[in-house]
Amino acid sequence: MIGRRFLLGLTSLAVPGSFFSTAVLFLFAYSSQLVNTIGDTSQLIPLFVGIVVGCILFSLVGYMIRSTWLTLSLETLVAALLLISSYVVMVANSLVLDGTLILITSFAMTSVSAPVATMLRLHRQIYSAPARATFGVAQAALSILFVLVFSIYYETTGQVNFFIGPLILLLVSLVSFLILLRAR
Amino acid sequence: MVATFSSVARASTINISPLSVSPMKVTRLVGTLSIILLLLLSAGTPRAFASADNTKTPIKHLINIYFENHTFDNYFGTYPHDSSSPDQGIITSLSTPINLLQNSSLMAELSPVAPGTFSTPDPIEGNTAYHIEWNHGLLNKFVEGGGPYSMTYFTAAQLGPIWDLAEEYSLADMYFSPVLSESAPNTMYYLTGFTPVINDYGPPPSIPFSQSIFGELESNGVSWGLFIPYQNESSTYSEWSLISGMNNYPGNILPWSSFVSDLNSGNLPAVSWIFSQDDNGTDQGPPSNIIPGEMWLMYMINEIEESPLWNSTAVTITWDDPGGYYDQIAPPVIGGVQSGFRLPLIVVSPYAKEDYVSNTVLTHSSILAFIDYNWGLPALNQYVSNVNVPLDVFDFNAPYAGNVTSRGSLAFSFGANFPLPQQPYFSLPSNLQQLNISTTFPMTPQYSLGALPYAKEGAANFTLSSVSPEVFVTANTTVIPFYASTYFLAILVAVNVALLYWGVRTRKKREA
């Protein structure tokens, strides 16, 4: 039977973590113009492979390693370096990314999942390793789900108003953080 | 205005007593009133009449017809124009494209669309695909970028009537898509000489209406109209959704049926755009059958030729972007922007040269440059100012038979080989596979080719910047609402992080 404490951890860590990390992922895709370079369906496979693998890997890293200010700083630094490197590669290639570069870039932009998870754990960190692994998988699954839902919405509405995805996620994330902070 | 003038006149009349005013004063008063009257009358007169009729050429009506997704070589790779012979219309022996930079491996990939087939599967489209095909001007990765269907081309078996238009009038063979990308950015250059996007997406961002050609025409009193399949599509139609404020002009966005009635009643706007994009594949974009678009085009051309406005009309026919298909010419940098692959441009007009091929380097915004030139307006923006104006396709002084300088109308009719519709909305004939379309080309020239007073091929570099530095929009701006900007989203990210950080610190302090 799933304990109340586990469910509380799931809703107070994995759920807000997925809101915020997906929002940052979308924001990078929006501000770097990565999303605007996607012009045909053949580009979707490397894009989503990178996102799926990256979300799972970085979420697990964020939940499994020791949560301290030092690890948080290191994860943030690694994520920033990956995002900056991806952006430099995109600019250097005049925003023309073949399948491999799309895969690498989409993988890199999911790296924010790790520091987000670690930051949340600093707030609420006493959980067993299996529970934390479950939170990691749950955060990754929710992030992938949000990416899919907004991608379909964006495509079916004629590729307009991409900002709505990150805007909604950031506002929901803000509310979830407020609820989290009020909880004892 | 009339009321204002009346009140001025009334007040003046009341205060004037002929017995107490000297003749000098009366003369001065009459002079002043006359000037006021003239000013009021000129201000009260719609500027559309003065400006719309005041053109630099005999062309008072420009009609721009827009299709989708075919390169020049995809449609005209085997168009057998004979520029070397003065009295020979076509080269009869040309059956495969002469092109692709002698690249034998790519030549082997080329294949014609089989007779009886009127479409190809959709090649891969997009900014990335086109850049891969382009490969920095080497043009050797069409298969990698656009896929195998990028290497197909149509022939007279599908395009006979469109080739007839090119043969009877003028064809531009150096007309490039403005950017190496797909519909949205190229259409923006077609309508604004600028693009706020690099691919098919948005808004946001958008461009203000005042910076579009519609804004320039509107502010100068030149009438304009957009014609789309059905009226109720105007609110959702995407071709100009990147121009913010278009919805404020519903009276200028009308269905095809209005175009036909306006044309026949002689009330067509000075500048018209007809968008072929509909749900029935009239736009010719792959994988659609290209025949509905071809039949629709020939119907429209016949309507224009038979209308009372024919003698003052020019029609441009072009395609929005390359659609992923191959082309043999490396696109140049035009006005500081790397252009994309060539597109066909056909110009139909009583002043268009017969059987003429223009080698002038042109692009979508060249049509805007022609509008500005013809109606005496400043170049829409710096880009439009720097592109060539398509003037060499016209001869406004050619002495044709009967001592006239304009060509009479042609009636395109192909009988059962290519039955033409009787209205813009129609169903395809059921025996499409049996149509013998290749027999529709070539047509008998309207005038004997050997007697034409101009060459059959040529170029003329003329830009608006060469005559005036004036531009209508000095700096284009991209509109993104603050709530949709990356700045606002970044602030929200920062607030989220600050909140979480504050929460962690507070909890740690409490635990300590």
Could you explain how this protein is built, in words?
The complex is a heterodimer of chains A (184) and B (512). Chain A is an all-alpha fold and 184 residues long. Helix content of chain A is 77%, strand content 0%. In chain A, α1 packs antiparallel against α5 and α1 packs across α6. Chain A starts with a helix and ends with a helix. The model of chain A has no long low-confidence stretch (mean pLDDT 92). Chain B folds into 3 domains: 44 residues; 416 residues, Alkaline Phosphatase, subunit A (3-Layer(aba) Sandwich), CATH 3.40.720.10; 30 residues. Helix content of chain B is 32%, strand content 11%. Chain B is globular. In chain B, 47% of the residues are buried. At the A-B interface, α1, α5 and α7 of A face α6 and α15 of B.
Arithmetic mean pLDDT of chain A:
92
Radius of gyration of chain A: 16 Å
In CATH, the architecture of the largest domain in chain B is: 3-Layer(aba) Sandwich
Radius of gyration of chain B: 27 Å
Whole-number count of domains of chain B: 3
What's the total number of strands of chain B? 17
CATH homologous superfamily annotation of the largest domain in chain B: Alkaline Phosphatase, subunit A
Oligomer: heterodimer
Largest sheet of chain A: none
Number of domains of chain A: 1
Give the strand tally of chain A.
0
Q: Average pLDDT of chain B, to the nearest integer?
A: 86
How do the strands line up in the largest sheet of chain B? Answer: 9-7-10-1-11-14-4-15-17
Distance between the terminal alpha carbons of chain B, to the nearest Å?
80 Å
Helix-residue proportion of chain A: over 70%
